[in-house]
Amino acid sequence: MSGVFAPDSKQLPIRFGVALPPAVxxxxxxxxxxxxxxxxxxxxxxxxxHPYHPRYLDTLSLIGMLLARSERVHIFPDVANLPLRPPExxxxxxxxxxxxSGGRFELGLGSGGYWDAIKTFGVRPLTRAQxxxxxxEAIAIIRALWSGAHGIRFSGDHYRLEDATxxxxxxxxxxxxxxxxxTRLLETTGRLADxxxxxxxxxxxxxxxxxxxxxxxxxxxxxxxxxxxxxxxxQVVGAVTDPPGPTWxxxxxxxxxxxAAQWADVITYLxxxxxxxxxxxxxxxxxxxxxxxFAEIATEFRNRRDGRPLPKNRQAVNRxxxxx
Length: 324
Known about the structure:
alpha/beta
């Protein structure tokens, strides 16, 4: 399989993370998983955003609590539901969380997928083309408000600003990572976004990821951008197991269930063939054990890629129970 680009020094550093559901549970339960991810050396935590789901907490509220009880890891909505989160207030919330956490918030952003559920909150449904238009307007508004400028005016088909004052200004350049799968939104990602949060394979099968990457790259070049400056997050559902699982092929949407060496092969393919520079693990059953095992695989991959000696306990990822 030929890569989209050969890895080189201009690419962004490799990041690894875990996605956690905002289930209605105690804060201690959420902190247990988030702090395990940070302690294990993961870089990112994603929290899905489905405000209409009765058994989910508000994603931004949960992220605020997790940021307050962590020190290093960056946390992002995976991805924020734009139709139910007006960009003016999303900009305010994102900047506030970034300030309060010392620059550890990133903004995953989606145009809205489940319109049957979204419209139950009184939001007028949009066509696919309209939802992309709205997202492009939202990006412009969010960045304008983050600038801290005065007298901001914006007149779009979906959003307006009239002499608005921006601020607060985030302490770091918050990445806007779009959860795109359609052709036009992928092109928007290449033209405007800081990153692509690839949808999990049940939405965008593995065999379409390479084509999607190429479309982002082409749109970026057409806009005068270096495609390598756009972060690419592969989001992979599965479990780290003790016995070997079935041979994985980059097609379909089945969860990946395999031992450490199999997961290392998957990560290698995603990074070296498809030029993803972040891999986010979506555990089928979120647990401290699964987070720790994935983190050890990620650490070993980074060490090997950077030419550092492997840790003496490199076989630790193959020990323990089943994928609990």
